[in-house]
Write a structure and sequence with these properties.
The protein has 204 residues and is mostly helical. The chain is 66% helix and 0% strand.
């Protein structure tokens, strides 16, 4: 008899197996049967916990967003002396997460999952976005109310910039890598962007 039936937590064992498969083959490169085999359970046992592969990937992504949001919160609230330092720390946390948790990252951002189809996933994803929005609000506090850019727009742009650095310069073939460390590239981009919005004074 396969040991999966005696797992204390079969559901998590399947998630752990999926994480390995996602990191190796991508979020759409494996079947539910392969996940069952990796977890050493029968395919029928999987359906006691997940309706299908997308359901399993959604749970991987949900757990990833929980880790991601916690890292972003820590980066933002960890005694940063200025709003800019806090903002840059959240950007570095994004890169660190992608580097350390590739399976979670791919499930979150490369699986094509619809957040609307998974309300619990949408809820925890919003927790991470909220951190960047709070950082954007802090940065714009010195501007008059009518001249402040929307914090949702600023946070979306920083998110996109962080994601772009990960996708272009931290993943894929070595030849595609930037001549600059990804953290330096992102920090410089954030500085240029925020100065362009008037959220930071120009360099002297």
């Amino acid at each position: 008899m396969k040991r999966g039936y005696h797992h204390g937590n079969l559901r998590q064992a399947l998630v752990d197996a999926a994480l390995i498969l996602i990191a190796e083959q991508g979020p759409t490169g494996f079947t539910l049967s392969e996940a069952a085999k990796a977890a050493e359970v029968t395919p029928a046992a999987v359906y006691r916990h997940f309706a299908g592969r997308d359901d399993l990937i959604a749970e991987v992504a949900r757990q990833g967003y929980e880790i991601f949001a916690a890292l972003m919160e820590f980066a933002f609230d960890n005694g940063r002396p200025t709003a800019l330092a806090a903002f840059e720390a959240t950007g570095r946390a994004y890169l660190a997460f992608a580097r350390k948790y590739p399976g979670h990252y791919m499930a979150m951002f490369e699986s094509g999952l619809s957040l609307n189809a998974h309300p619990d996933l949408a809820l925890v994803a919003q927790k991470a976005r909220d951190v960047l929005e709070r950082a954007a609000e802090r940065l714009s506090q010195h501007l008059p109310q009518g001249k402040r850019p929307p914090s949702t727009m600023v946070s979306a742009h920083i998110w996109a910039m962080s994601h772009g650095v990960v996708e272009l310069y931290m993943r894929g073939a070595p030849g595609a890598r930037s001549p600059f460390p990804p953290e330096d590239l992102l920090e410089a981009g954030i500085g240029i962007y925020l100065r362009g919005l008037g959220l930071l004074p120009p360099d002297r």
